[in-house]
Amino acid sequence: MMKLGFFLYGTGHHIASWRDPGVVPDANRSLRHYIDITQTAERAKFDFVFNADSNSTFGPDDPEIWKRKTDAMRLEPLTLLGALSAVTSHIGMISTATTTYLDPFHVARIFATLDQLSEGRIGWNVVTSSAASEAFNFSHLKHVAHADRYKRAAEFIQVVQGLWDSWEDDAFVLDKKAGLFFDPDKMHMLHHKGEHFSVRGPLMVQRSPPSR
Question: What is the pLDDT of residues 94-111, one digit of tens each?
Fold first, then answer.
């Protein structure tokens, strides 16, 4: 079965779309605009909306090029998806998060939280950062080599998935009379020790609900 996705981009993908008389030129920062187009996609029966991201500007690392495009104005996507989840009911929401310059515990916690708040509608687009300029925003002198990025990504995904399994489905018993919030036998520490990461766990978010 074909799945239909809608690519979120405030002013549109054409390099000069922001200059069209009918386009709001700073729509890339407008929550109202993103709500309108996401709700429209939901009514049109799209399966998901997708938000690409980079931790630097897309394209050439050159302010002389940036000044004529909208790439230098882009909201942080996971915060945006949290807002959109509150005003939609069934459309999926997918966002990019890099394994090269982020930390697996943060990614696991943020995506698990969004998945809880949206009742199982969040997806993670795993990338290793194609833009070399991202390195300069994370205290690196140069971009991580391709092979090293993918080795780190493989371990990163393993850690995230392990953290997402910190709790069994019925771990939280919520027994007020016994004073037992969760069953400790159904909590699992990760205790991951690898080449790139050392992560104990547990994640403070229960296992994600079934997707709608």
Answer: 999 999 999 999 999 999
